[in-house]
Amino acid sequence: MEVRDYIQRQIANSYRLLDAAMEGTTDEQFNWTPPGTANPIRAAFIHLVAGEDYFIQTVIQGKSRIWDAEGWGSRIGLTQPPGRGGDWTEVKTTALEIGPIVDYQRAVRAATHDHVAALSLDEMARTVTFAGTTREVADMLVLLAGHITFHAGEIAAIKGVQGVKGLPF
Question: What is the pTM of this model?
Fold first, then answer.
C-alpha cells in the first residue's frame, strides 16, 4: 500500500467516527455548555474543522484558510474560529446553528480530499513548519486524522453527559 492511500484511509476513518458522533445532534445539544471547564460541542466541532482547514490550506499549501477566503466567519456567526493558543471566548459564549458549520465542513473536506488525492510521494516527504517544529507533510496528515478522532471522542462524551448516545457502539 502506498503512503497516500494509507493516509487517505486514516482520514476517511476519522471522518466516519466524527460523523457518527455528530449524527442526530440537535442545535440544543450542540450549544449546551457542560459543567466544569469542558468545551461545548460547537467549540470542539468548529475547532477541528478549522484546524483541518489550517493544516491543509495554510501549513501544507501556504494558502489562506477557506474560512477567510470564502467568508465563513460571517456565514457561521463568528469573527474567528477557535484555534491553538487563540481566544476561545467568542465560540464558548455564542450560540450557533449546526447547518452553516456543516456546510463549512463540507467545503474543507472537499479541499482536503482533492489535495491529498493529488499528493506525490515527494510532496508527502516535503517538510513544513507547524507549532514551531518541522514535520513532513505525511506527518501533518497523520496528525490531522488523530486530531479529528480525538475531538470526535470529546463530542461523543459531551453528548453522553447530556444523556444521549454519542457513538453507535
Answer: 0.95
